[in-house]
Amino acid sequence: QVQLQESGPGLVKPSQTLSLTCTVSSGSITSYHYYWSWIRQPPGKGLEWIGYISYSGSTYYNPSLGSRTSISRDTSKNQFTLQLSSVTPEDTAVYYCARGWTYGSDWRDYDYLGQGTQVTVSS
Length: 123
Known about the structure:
single chain; mainly beta
């Protein structure tokens, strides 16, 4: 059973960079053909896909977030990290890391997810 766990600050000030790490256990982030995504759900809204890093290390981001997104990985620790810069209160959401054979804004795109972590952007 693959397990994912998000970690990072729960409160970020506007204009700062949000940084979250996902630690994966019982499964390698270099396993063939998987996408390792970050997704979020703002209060009262639907799921939004943020971006992924693939098993090969390639990345792809949601164009709606522009150039604010960066996802990297540390294969020695079996972790991948999200950085979202220049945050505003509109970035307040529950953030999830997830594994899937594909990616998108549907829960069915993923077979394993972390429990989610609340991030609030406020001064």
